[in-house]
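Hi everyone, sorry if this is the wrong subforum. Our group has a chain we'd like a structural model of before ordering constructs, and none of us has done structure prediction before. Sequence below.
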Amino acid sequence: MEKVTDRLYIVIPAYNEEENIGKVVEQWHPIAEGIGQGSRLVVIDDGSRDDTLAILRELEKQYPCLLVKTKPNSGHGPTLLVGYRFAVEEGAEYVFQTDSDGQTDPAEFDAFWELRKDCDAVIGSRPSRQDGASRVFVEKTLCRILRVVFGVKIPDANAPFRLMKTELLEKYLSRMPEDYNLPNVMLTTFFAYYNENIRFLDVSFKPRQGGTNSINLRKIVKIGWKALGDFERFKKEM
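Answer:
Right subforum, don't worry. Here is the predicted structure as tokens:
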């Protein structure tokens, strides 16, 4: 599909977010609607077991730029990859990603959008996270590992607040398998390793606004152990 200047796809993965998804759509839809030019708010339901998908189907009737997709449950990372590849296929010029738990602030989007002509990617950095000390520790440890393995120094590898030119995103998507768990981490790493034109901006990060996080510390540790092997494989290919 032919690209249109400034067409934005906001990609939001969702899993069991019935308590948050209505508010998240209400907050983010005006951004896609305001930019126009075929911009869409794309929410991808990752096989939710609660009423998330049913709520989204009703919201589609109210919000003209909302596009709901659903898929079997495979996890946050693979769901992101589905959303990213869909945005590329649809001819979006820019892709913005955030999450469905209400922890990010749409009011901070404008600062990222203003830099879209100057940078190929603008990535959020969370200097003050309000979602628990354990997650702060995990993120800091992850950044240290990336520095050791890849030689990149980045302030935040996995922030769910990032604006990317589709051309840059497409450049690296093919390097990751469909079931990869940490696409945002590797995208940030690729961008830094290959000296792409990127910038980090501080963003706030609130506590989860409702519901329970499906990725607990035990799952994070399990993903982390697997990631070490993945990082070594990626490094050999770079």
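For your construct planning: The chain has a mean pLDDT of 92. The helical segments are 21-35, 52-62, 76-89, 109-113, 133-150, 166-173, 183-193, 217-237.
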